[in-house]
Structure formats: C-alpha cells, structure tokens
Amino acid sequence: MSADNSDGNLSVPLRNVLNSIQCIRDRVRDGESNESDGAFNLSNFWDTLNQAVKAVSQEATKLSLAFSRPPLPSLQDGETLSESILKSVLTLSTVYYWLPKSQGVVLRRQVRDATVEVLEGVIQLLEVILSSPLQSLTQEQLTSTGGVWSACDRFVQLPRDNKAALLVVLTAQIGVVKDAIEEIDQALSEAQDPFNDVLDDDQDGDNPRGNQDTYWSEKDRRVIGPCQGLMKAAAACLRKLTPAVKANGDFREAQNVAQLDDLADISVKISPGIDDLALCLYPPMDYSGVENNVCKLAALLKKLLEMIRFSHVCGESELTWVQFLDGAVDHNLQKAKDLIAQDG
C-alpha cells in the first residue's frame, strides 16, 4: 500500500503497530524472563503458547488478505485489523515471558529465538503492505505471509524441556564437528597440495607452481595426526554424551537443570575450537599457532569431560568412556607437542 494508494490516513495505524511490534521484538530479544515464585506448570505453558502462536498466524493472514486486492479496508477496519494483530503479538510475548530461567536457559533461549522469528515475520509483512502498490496480491506479500506461517509452524518442533533443548544443541554440534573433521581428512587424502582447487597453476607448463608454502611437509603431516586424534576425541565425546543425556538427563530438579545448561554452554564451544585448530593446520603451518589451539581444545575437552563425570547424566557405564576419552585427550596433546618440538 504505497502512499499514493493509501486511503486517507489508513497507513497511520499500520505504521503505529509496526513501530510497536518492533519495540516488542527488541524487548523479547534482549529482555529477561519473569521468575516464577510458585510451581511452574510446563505443560500449561506450552498449551497457552501454542494458542498464542496460532492466533498470531490467523491475524497475520487476515491482515494480508485485507490488503491483497482492492478495495482498501476502511479506516475503521484498518484500525481494527491493526489492533488485533498487535493484541496477538502482545499475548505471544507475554506468554513467552512466563517461562522462567529455572526451567533452563537453553530451553528459554530456543523459545526466545522462535518467538523473535515470528515477530520479525510480522514486521516484514507490515513493511511489505505499507510499501506495495495496491493492485493485487504481490509475490513479496505472499512470501512474507508464508514467512509468518513458517515461523509459527516451527513451534511444533521446539524442544519441550531443557533436556530436549540440550539434545538439539548436541545434534547441531555433532554435525558441525563431523564436517570439520571430514574436510581435513579429504584435504589430506586428495593431493599433496590442499590448495590445488583454489589456486591457478601456470598454464604454459614451463613454470609450474613451486611455492612450497602451499604444500604440507612430512613434519606437517606427522603433526596433523594427533590433531586429528584430538578432533575425533571431541566428536566421540559429543556422540557419547547424547545417549547419556537421553537416558539419564533430568529437567525437574533445579540443580540438574543447571547442569544441563552448563553442558550446553561448553558443548557449543567445541566446534569453534576445532575450526580454529583446523585453520592452523593448512600450509604454511604455523607450529606455535597449532600448539596454542591444540592446548585450548584439549583444555576445553578436559573441562567438558570433568563436567560430565560429576553431572547427573554420568552413570557407571558412562564413566568408562569418560575416562577413556580423558586419556585420549592427554595422549594426543602430548604427542602433538612432542612432534612440534622435533626438528623437521
């Protein structure tokens, strides 16, 4: 609805509600939850939240349809539509705030992100309506309406408790770590020159590229071995932790909820640690950088393994692999240091 197609001041209520929802979005993204003084019913929270999300989706659809073809809504109808979408958004944000941190920071973070995604979808829809000429339902308006629906549908897949929220985090981390390990493995197996596919050779054949800074030396390859071992120990730790959380994780006791949060916080640091180490392994290899990042990743893994050992998710069967991986971390760390210290 561009300015020349607007009916009187019809754009005013839309712009007002747009500004209001932008403020709500910012508060949800940056604000804190209300701490619950009494017992919190997680099941009731989800029922109410899903109803609120459904209401936002319905109001967004009404708004989009009203501005999809001529004639424009009357000023009164425009104000009613604006009030309705704002009311649904306020209800959604209010229900989100009911979820206290005591139910788990990881859970709350994922619910927050999903709520913000819905609010941003509504904001985009309002912006499109305000900027589009009123001729027919534009592709941009269809896309933005679908964006609101998609964001609302995401709530069905959200984890329902902090245990499930941690499992979401672990699954994502396992995928990222697996990709990083496979990338190094592939670079090692494909060619002597890991940059073979990104740097152009001299095409005349008389001066083939001879820059040894793009090749791994024998010492480089020896150093990479324990670095790969450390990365694989990290991947194994995340893989083993997942069934331990599924079997033993508890989201009812406050202390256990906090332990799940702690496990999530350190788990998300594993993949950046592996990325930093992997980047150092490409030629020309900086041995001091490799050693620094090997030590950092090893320290992170030792901390995670210790946290697992003393958490409620670790039973007798878990203790076996925790101790094994702790030894594997020590072994690969020392081996990497020894190889780096050797003369080439």
TrEMBL record:
Superkingdom of origin organism: Eukaryota
Record flagged with keyword Cell cycle: yes
Residue ranges constituting the Cyclin-D1-binding protein 1-like N-terminal domain according to the UniProt record: 49-189
Compartments in which it is found: Cytoplasm; Nucleus
Originating species: Kryptolebias marmoratus (Mangrove killifish)
Keywords recorded for this protein, A-Z: Cell cycle, Cytoplasm, Nucleus
Main location: cytoplasm
Family affiliation: Belongs to the CCNDBP1 family.
Name recorded for this polypeptide: Cyclin D-type binding-protein 1
GO cellular component, as recorded: cytoplasm; nucleus
